[in-house]
Design a protein that fits this description.
The protein is an all-alpha fold. It has one domain. It has 2 helices and no strands. The radius of gyration is 20 Å and the shape is flat.
Length: 59
């Protein structure tokens, strides 16, 4: 292993150590989605899926 690979691994590990507690708090304190929120999110996702299927069929 080169020195660059070791430093990259140490940096990634350090990022996980510092980010994980903050991420856990953010998930715990995040607002909960209502049914209307989920319906509003599904419509664009379905649109993208249908568009990708259309592109695949055209090719």
């Amino acid at each position: 292993m080169s020195l660059e690979a070791i430093l990259a691994a140490v940096l990634m590990g350090g990022m996980l150590v510092f980010i994980f507690p903050r991420m856990r708090d953010a998930v715990k304190n995040a607002p909960k989605g209502s049914t209307d929120d989920w319906k509003a999110a599904i419509i664009p996702i379905l649109g993208v899926i249908l568009f990708v299927i259309l592109l695949i069929k055209i090719v």
